[in-house]
Amino acid sequence: xxxxxxxxxxxxxxxxxxxxxxxxxxxxxxxxxxxxxxxxxxxxxxxxxxxxxxxxxxxxxxxxxxxxxxxxxxxxxxxxxxxxxxxxxxxxxxxxxxxxxxxxxxxxxxxxxxxxxxxxxxxxxxxxxxxxxxxxxxxxxxxxxxxxxxxxxxxxxxxxxxxxxxxxxxxxxxxxxxxxxx
Length: 182
Prior knowledge:
The protein has helices spanning 4-42, 47-68, 74-97, 99-103, 106-128, 131-149, 154-181. The protein is an all-alpha fold. The chain has one domain (4-181). It is flat and about 60 Å long.
């Protein structure tokens, strides 16, 4: 039987491990929701934001894949991810420099770019065989029609994301408390 001091010493390691395991996915969702919220609130194209965020998300996917890939296959995985995210970035660029940008309002263009981002995250999850990335991409993809359906839902989705993160922390805390009582 372990003493409570041993449990208290192990608790921070468990919390940090849980945070480090899930933080990349929370960051991807937060960046996507911030971008679509910014587009919805400013009513102006935010192509620069997406051009900056896409390589950040690519690096997060490479980091996630690096942890789950054998050391001999890591360079190939990184090259595949760089090429995939370069294709996503080029598609985003083509949307913003062509006549598409002039024929769509800022909200529609933001939703198209978020769809490309969601697809990129989902495909990265498939390539890396990481279900959490697939789930993150699916969440971003589902947020696209939700935002389109609820005209002013960008702020609501950010709040839902914040609530989900708070519920995740509450779950960790409660699970920790029940382990301490047992």
